[in-house]
């Protein structure tokens, strides 16, 4: 469907609707239409010319509207009121705290309802063994992973391009279960990795439309800790010193009266984290998250697994899935959150955002418009 104003095809990320007729336009076009109506107001004749707010009418059906709906994702959308009076009339009693979605939140949230575009494969040195030789991350957004075995390292291939067989191949398969490719280490993120915390927090915020997800975040990290099996050695310095003393035959009383200083205890080793098979990880995680995310729990578990085995940072993972940003991320986040007022209306219902107009909304100083209402 083309925009009735500019006659161009309406992109999904640029669609907007006017309430309450809900005719569809480009957001830029209907915003400019509203600005022009504000600069050249038409008043309702039934109420008199002076002292009343101007009418903002839909260009299609000429019905009045108070706000524009845009940035619609699942059950959330954003609302731009035409003026202050429309904002006062359109305010909804708050049913809970919400949050303004950044560009990263919107992209991650959209993955749960739309098919992502094709993404490039991981470099050979960063490709997790769990993904296998023929695994591509083209289905990364939807977590489509096949289990076809580990990828052979380039050094393990012969001059004719054949993969080495025998004990070396068996060692390769065993190394794959520990999250490594032969000759190419893969960094599997631990449960206490800051990047993992950032990713999970953003994922939960995008799904729940709530900023405070601290308790659920700790629950997810605890489940990851139990699943990954990343444990440390339970040894202390005092225990090591006792072992040294007993091993050398020195009693505690002699040790106290002598100048002998036992060697410092070695730093306890921490086992490298390893992930179970994808199906097992998703089964456990989705079971734990089902009561919080309902039907999205399975998808959340799949997305989390793909991030863990990627070994990438949050920024690198976003570039892999969505590509590089055309506009700077900081500008997009600032535009999404600047001058916003969030009004939540309960779980599973619409979440409204009131945006302050840009500077282009400023009216020209004119004597005829002295009594007009102030702009948004």
Automatic annotation (TrEMBL):
<keyword id="KW-0863">Zinc-finger</keyword>
<protein>
    <recommendedName>
        <fullName>RING-type domain-containing protein</fullName>
    </recommendedName>
</protein>
<dbReference type="InterPro" id="IPR001841">
    <property type="entry name" value="Znf_RING"/>
</dbReference>
<feature type="compositionally biased region" description="Acidic residues">
    <location>
        <begin position="356"/>
        <end position="376"/>
    </location>
</feature>
<dbReference type="InterPro" id="IPR013083">
    <property type="entry name" value="Znf_RING/FYVE/PHD"/>
</dbReference>
<dbReference type="GO" id="GO:0008270">
    <property type="term" value="F:zinc ion binding"/>
</dbReference>
<dbReference type="InterPro" id="IPR017907">
    <property type="entry name" value="Znf_RING_CS"/>
</dbReference>
<feature type="region of interest" description="Disordered">
    <location>
        <begin position="140"/>
        <end position="174"/>
    </location>
</feature>
<feature type="compositionally biased region" description="Low complexity">
    <location>
        <begin position="163"/>
        <end position="174"/>
    </location>
</feature>
<feature type="compositionally biased region" description="Basic and acidic residues">
    <location>
        <begin position="332"/>
        <end position="341"/>
    </location>
</feature>
<keyword id="KW-0862">Zinc</keyword>
<dbReference type="Pfam" id="PF14634">
    <property type="entry name" value="zf-RING_5"/>
</dbReference>
<keyword id="KW-0479">Metal-binding</keyword>
<feature type="domain" description="RING-type">
    <location>
        <begin position="3"/>
        <end position="62"/>
    </location>
</feature>
<feature type="region of interest" description="Disordered">
    <location>
        <begin position="328"/>
        <end position="376"/>
    </location>
</feature>
């Amino acid at each position: 469907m083309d925009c009735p104003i500019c006659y161009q095809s309406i992109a999904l990320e640029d669609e907007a609707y006017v309430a309450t007729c809900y005719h569809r336009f480009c957001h830029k076009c209907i915003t400019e239409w509203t600005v022009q109506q504000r600069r050249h107001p038409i008043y309702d004749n039934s109420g008199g010319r002076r002292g009343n707010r101007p009418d903002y009418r839909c260009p299609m059906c000429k019905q009045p509207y108070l706000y524009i709906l845009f940035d619609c994702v699942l059950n959330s959308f954003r609302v731009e009121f035409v003026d202050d009076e429309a904002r006062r009339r359109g305010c909804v009693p708050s049913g809970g705290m919400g949050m303004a979605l950044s560009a990263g939140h919107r992209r991650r949230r959209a993955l749960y309802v739309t098919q992502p575009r094709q993404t490039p494969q991981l470099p050979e040195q960063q490709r997790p063994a769990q993904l296998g030789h023929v695994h591509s991350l083209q289905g990364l957004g939807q977590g489509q992973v096949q289990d076809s075995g580990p990828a052979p390292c380039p050094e393990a291939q012969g001059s004719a391009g054949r993969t080495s067989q025998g004990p070396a191949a068996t060692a390769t398969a065993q190394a794959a279960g520990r999250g490594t490719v032969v000759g190419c280490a893969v960094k599997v993120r631990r449960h206490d990795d800051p990047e993992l915390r950032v990713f999970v927090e953003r994922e939960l915020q995008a799904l729940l439309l709530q900023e405070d997800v601290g308790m659920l975040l700790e629950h997810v990290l605890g489940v990851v800790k139990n699943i990954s099996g990343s444990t440390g050695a339970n040894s202390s310095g005092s225990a090591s010193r006792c072992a040294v003393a007993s091993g050398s035959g020195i009693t505690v009383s002699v040790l106290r009266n002598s100048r002998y200083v036992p060697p410092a205890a070695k730093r306890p080793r921490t086992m490298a984290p390893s992930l179970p098979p994808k199906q097992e990880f998703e089964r456990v995680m989705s079971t734990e998250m089902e009561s919080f995310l309902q039907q999205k729990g399975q998808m959340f578990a799949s997305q989390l697994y793909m991030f863990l085995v990627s070994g990438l940072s949050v920024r690198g993972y976003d570039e892999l899935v969505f590509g590089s940003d055309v506009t700077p991320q900081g500008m997009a986040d600032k535009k999404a959150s600047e001058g916003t007022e969030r009004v939540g209306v309960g779980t599973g219902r619409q979440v409204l955002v009131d945006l302050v107009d840009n500077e282009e909304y400023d009216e020209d100083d004119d004597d005829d418009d002295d009594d007009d209402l102030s702009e948004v």
